[in-house]
Design a protein that fits this description.
Belongs to the major facilitator superfamily. Proton-dependent oligopeptide transporter (POT/PTR) (TC 2.A.17) family. Belongs to the major facilitator superfamily. Phosphate:H(+) symporter (TC 2.A.1.9) family. This is Protein NRT1/ PTR FAMILY 6.2. It is found in: Membrane. The protein has 571 residues and is mainly alpha-helical. It has 3 domains: 238 residues, Growth Hormone, Chain: A (Up-down Bundle), CATH 1.20.1250; 76 residues, no CATH class; 237 residues, Growth Hormone, Chain: A (Up-down Bundle), CATH 1.20.1250.20. It is built from 19 helices and 6 strands. The chain has a two-stranded antiparallel ribbon with strand order 1-2. Strand 1 and strand 2 form a beta hairpin. The protein is globular and about 85 Å long. The chain starts with a helix and ends with a helix.
Length: 571
Amino acid sequence: MSMEASERTMFVSAAVDYTGAPASRSTTGGWVSAASILVVELCERLSTMAIAVNLVTYLVGTMHLPSSTSSTIITNWSGISYLFSLLGGVLADSFLGRYWTIAIFANIHMLGSCLLAISSVLPNLRPPPCNPSLLDNCKEANGLQMAVFYISVYTIAVGLGGIKCSVSGFGTDQFDEKDEKEKAQMAHFFNRFYFFISIGTLLAVTVFIYIQDRVARVWGYASCTIIMLLAIAIFFSGTRRYRYKACRGSPIIQILRVLVAAVRKRKLKFPADMQHLHETHPTESRLAPTRQLICLDKAAIIDDDDYIMIESGTQNRWRLCSVTEVEEVKMMTRILPIWATTIMYYVIHAQMITFAVLQASTMERSIGSFEIPGGSFNAFFIGAILLTLAIHDRLIVPLLKKKKGTLGLTSTQKMGLGLFISIITMVVAAIVETRRLKVAKSTSSTNSTLPISAFLLAPQFVLAGAAEGLVYTGQLDFFLSESPKGMKAVSTSLFLTTISLGFFVSSALVAIIRRVTEGRQNWLPANLNHGRLDLFYGLIALLSAINLGFYLLSAKWFLCKKTQRQTQTRN
């Protein structure tokens, strides 16, 4: 073996260690480094979900806000949290790098948890306690108290966005794709990454929510702070073993460059031979030009000003882009209809952490002498996700491989089936709520707990979890496999925005329904026992059915265009 070949096996290409020297294959990266990152994700998920899933009961029971207002606050907060991942992605890709992005934003997340714990225990930062059954006579939180609350939770949101956009990418940086052994380990990393997310969420909705409801809020939120402090310590302990990769610039900037260049050159005519369009990428990494979205190809037209700059050794990348850069943006544009039609699932997901939790809080939740917190019913949700993934991997994949030679359901099939199950989820939820309301009308208003089992809510949590297991994994597979190689990060961020926008749509629906039904039979009053949440669920089911129709059309269009694109490339 030559000296040069020996060095290639000793060091990982395009990666350095904490000193900036080439990363040694034997002393950096691998599972030891990845394990530290997995623990960070577990702690982040545990801390975030322990706060998010039970926050609606804090706003209603402690801050004395109406249920619909509380739901809107939480869905807006959740939506903005995922939007911050776009900002974190730009910072990580262009300036800070993934290591420092995680380190900085994990500390911000911990600070937010600490502020929330403090605000939950200081008497001046929350309204005086009152009888939950007489909620209309309770004193709502004042401006100062809500301001401190918002500062706390939105500090957590900023931290969440920074961590979420970088942690999976930094984990994969610890493996070398050019090494067959490490490439196989990377595939296992993704499986374990999702497993750790699920375990963190499961612990959050059981152990930590129990601490909040049965011990004290301050201890529940303080535990989240301690968990994040532990995550930070473990993360920094692996500094010497991590592999680091240089910032390559944000793909979002590339998309903006292509759009700006195409607009600036919109009046130019295409050359007679499209081979004369600008191209700088190596032959092996080039994308062939396609006839779809041809208006974007104008960004690659070379005009007189471009010739002058090229001859002088300079180039304005906001005026001239390569064909490959344009084709990468086209690929991202083609997935937008699928992106738009998967947003609706997360409207349903939002109901599971808001109104469904409030429903459970009004119902009988005891098993013997043990009373289950309302937020802990999301354990059915997480369990259904894990069960759905196991059924797909252990039953459906072998069956379809044997019969059709395929590796399970395709990403579009997963998303379509998940969207269909989500419609059934809302129908079941509406039926259960109708029954709960009948019991509420026949029960004394002084009773804080209705004589009806909260386990009637279990089917809707299970169905929503099964839908999420299909939609989430289908989206992740779709956005990563159908996006260009250089835009995997922005594609992941695009996927996360479906979650964000789903929460915003939920907030908008709540606001519209409150205004339309105000003064009549209010569907979403402060006390759910006096409302018509069943009709609200029915409306979401109807909108989801319409959305499913648009999704099926979008999926058919995408697959048709993909086939055409592949045919053009071969020709």
